[in-house]
Amino acid sequence: MQRSTLLEYKNYRYFKIASLLMIAAVMAYLFDQPATGAYGGSWLGYLFGILSALIVIALILYGVRKRLTPMRTEQRNLLDASSPQQDIPDRRKREANWLRHHGATLHGWLSAHTYLGVALIVLATLHTGFEFGWNIHTLAYALMMVVIISGFYGIYAYLRFPRLMTANMRGSDTFDTLLLEIDDLDKQASVKSLQFSDDICAIVRKARQETLIGGNFFRQLTAYQRNCPTARAVQQLQVLGKSLEYDQLKSFDDLYSVMAHKESLVRRARLDVMYRARLGFWLYLHAPLSIAFLTALIVHIVAIFFYW
Amino acid sequence: MAEPAELPLRSSMTFAAGTRENILEIWHEDIQKHKVNLRLGAQVDGIKGERGDFQVTLSSEQTINAEFVVLAIGLQGNINKLGVLGEDLPNVQYQLDDPEEFKDETIVVVGGGDAGVENALALAQQNRVILINREEEFSRCKEGNFILLQAAIKAGRIEPRVNTRIDHIDTETENGFLLRVAAKTSEGVEIIACHRVIARLGASPPRKLLESFGVKFPNSDITSVPELSEQYESNVPGLYIIGTLGGCPLIKQALNHGYEVIEYILGNPVEPADEPLLKQKISIFDTSCSVREGLALIRRNAPILADLTALQLRELLLESNILTPKPDETIFKYDDYTSSFFSILEGELAVVVKAKDGSEIYFQIKAGNFFGEMGLISGRRRSATIKAITDCVLIETPRRSMLKLINSAESVRRKLDEVSMKRVVRNCLTNTLPESELNYLLQGATIRRYKAGDVLFHQGDKADGLYLIRRGSVIISHMTGGKEDVLSYVITGNYFGEMALISDKPRSKTARAASATDVVLLKAPVVIAALERNTDLRDLLAARYRENAHDKKMIEPQGKPGNLFTFLVQQGIGEATDVLLIDYSLCIRCNNCETACANTHGGISLFDRDAGPTHDHTHLPTSCRHCEHPYCMLDCPPNVIHRSVNGEVFIADGCIGCGNCKNNCPYDAIQMVAVNPKFKKPGLWQALLGGANHDDKKRIPDDDLPKKAIKCDLCKDNAMGPACVRSCPTGAALRISPEALSLTMRDSSAVLE
Lengths: 308, 753
Known about the structure:
The structure holds 2 protein chains of 2 kinds.
Chain A: H1 9-31, H2 43-67, H3 91-100, H4 106-128, H5 136-169, H6 175-193, H7 198-210, H8 217-222, H9 229-241, H10 249-280, H11 283-306
Helix pairs in contact in A: 1-4, 2-4, 2-11, 4-5, 5-10, 5-11, 6-7, 6-10, 7-9, 9-10
Chain B: H1 20-33, E1 44-50, E2 53-58, E3 63-66, E4 69-71, E5 92-93, E6 106-110, H2 114-123, E7 128-132, H3 143-154, E8 158-161, E9 165-171, E10 179-185, E11 188-194, E12 196-199, H4 207-212, E13 239-241, H5 251-265, H6 275-282, H7 291-301, H8 310-319, E14 321-323, E15 330-332, E16 341-346, E17 348-354, E18 360-366, E19 370-371, H9 373-378, E20 385-388, E21 393-397, H10 399-408, H11 410-428, H12 435-441, E22 446-450, E23 455-457, E24 465-471, E25 473-480, E26 483-491, E27 495-496, H13 498-503, E28 510-513, E29 517-523, H14 524-533, H15 535-549, H16 564-570, E30 579-583, H17 592-600, E31 614-615, E32 618-619, E33 641-643, E34 649-651, H18 660-664, E35 671-674, H19 684-688, E36 707-710, H20 723-726, E37 733-736, H21 738-746
Parallel strand pairs in B: 4-13, 5-12, 6-7, 6-12, 7-8
Antiparallel strand pairs in B: 1-2, 2-3, 9-10, 10-11, 14-21, 15-20, 16-19, 16-21, 17-18, 17-20, 22-29, 23-28, 24-27, 24-29, 25-26, 25-28, 30-32, 30-37, 31-32, 33-34, 35-36
Helix pairs in contact in B: 2-3, 10-11, 14-15
């Protein structure tokens, strides 16, 4: 099963639209020679400004659409499903219908969001006429650029991490099943370690009590725990194993393989946390800054009209 | 057990659904109140005589003289025993009242039927359970029990012994055990020490006893019940039989039967409790005739129902609707997803089907015939449109009642299959086939049934004939160098196996059932002879032959090896009509799909995105697949699980929270939860500020709310389609039918939108 990515959506529909928009804008900018020099207040500058503002509204609306589940029919409680069906069209026909209305899928919205966001760089930059300064206008511009650049990271993350996450889960595991399995291995290791010396027991106990999966922002993002007790336990067991009596070796190998298995599961669980963090953390920048940008933009527009 | 709710209770004994203990207590009080003359501990050894002069002999040598005798002894007095040495030892029991009574025991359960499996499952909660089945497989129990059993065996909670019989049972005193069971397995005798043996071997009519009373049985089948008149009188005048032994296992009806018999004997014949309801139904087409005349008319005009017993026919009619369509009125449309069955009592109807060239063809069917069996059997959309030509009278029997009847009345199944075979040939091959050719093709034809995974034929087999699918689906594959390539997926209403017939070579491919499948197999020599003389048929099969000669393979995603379709079929999508798939190379695990689902369904997501297997990058989440023959519908006491005309399987109002559907669903797609009736979809501001994410912990809003079964309804009331698919920001989620998926996978240029 291969579905189109957010960049390929509908055979690059929004790529085409955004490209046309950008090319047209650059051409217009190059051919237009206002007497005052290029700036936001020329008629072309206003046009760019209005277009950019409209795009911003479309981009913000994506965030709204994502959080709402629109219903086109009257909202009924679907659990009360005894009502007659006659007025609902066949789902297969309906599907063809709503797929054609690309606006109905969030997939289409995101594809448009992505390409229009890129187009905004060109349109807004041309709108400035390359006039920058220490003022609210340039602040709005800078905030916009930060939001868009964080969006680029988002595209990268969305296209890259899902495959890695799937590979890390190997078919049927989930994060929760990994944790359950780790817990189970911990219990096994505790029991198995009892017949050995105190230092081996201590190593195993430490691995059980102090191994962290996830945790603070940095740990989540890097899948790293300094001196991870589980990894250390595996290393130390390797060394300690050498000094054991022959008749203890079989049960020791048993313990060792449990700990080694646990280490690989811990690594995979941390990777899963890491991928999720890397898929998500940029939104903490992208979304609030877009609100900040929107605020700055409103101030910018009001200011322009106030000081006309 | 299900009780027909609308049926009034006439007996002065009280009865309402409740626990066994409650009901028994109330009856006990009623018996005292009505001063019933009871003789407890009196075992009847023989009954002699006839109406007006019966002698009932008791085992205490006493004789009771009676004018009439009513037998209401049920089957449980004749529980089948083990029939081996030690069958009556203490702790060898044939019933289980409360599985929680036993703890930390080793218990041998005997019997692979539902009772045995259910007991074993319940006991396994706190005991070691060994389940003995004399057959190789547990094929006699319900699908739901079978699945639970498989899981329990896999988890080691039940130790099965198949192909095993108990040889004898001894007492045992060592190690605290009480019994020693000698079991004959296929590998020899195994001695099992245990505390208890529970044998659930069913019960059967005490035939010998009844025959000694002079009662006759209709056939030699061990489960058959005596033939009775409409007053429940047996062939011995004055001897009446009611209840389970009379073929009616439902308590309320049995109580009514008893009431009716007594009143009849007293000379105040009452009409049966269902009489007014039947009268009302019959008056729809004939206001003047009595119920008896009406039933006789149905027998005359609907031969498929002619051989039913009076009780079966009454029950069927109670559950059915009488329709009286006017000329030109449509009964159902091509492609509708309905599955009721229609018998024609009066009038003529037109069957409108599409020919290969797209033009419409009309057949006429008349009174005495039936239709709708294709949708009933296949569990798929209607293959034709049915319109009334004249004023008609039809009996519309719901899917559930009809399936029950097919399974219990051999005559109905036989007549249904006879007619259905012809229709299947027309539907699968060509609707323009003339009647004579049809009869020719069907010489020696058989109906074959396969389970999911069964092989219909192997690569290299000699061609035995042409396969027409009546129910289910089949995957056709080709083995090359030890690797299996799936070539196509063939569903109900299609044929396969023509290549070897035309080329006169052995089978070049393997056909395997993707779900429970019925085929009509046309004999090879007959088909070959038909091809020689019928050019239309030859052209039809030759065109398919050439198309298949291209040997298209299913394309794997990203050209990688592996066999996605085989994987999906192993996961059971062969019986699905609509599955949720997620492309895990695109899914960013944001769970927006679940949030959207929860927002449209009372705050609860009806599927679990994370759970479920993944093959390569295709993830099959735990969600409803809207099966052709939904398991959830099998045993819904209030009968509230339905399929809409558009195909969505949904749970309507009236769920009693019994959990049968959840247990029967092999795909874990049903949840039992307390639904908060006050749930409101989060508003814009709440959504924007992060309040919209559903949270598992919030699932139970109030412990006092009753739990109900909920499942995916494909957002059937929403014109824009399933919320989960629509709300996926990266377009990873997809709902699709397996046949559409298989077609897309055969076309390399297709991208699933």
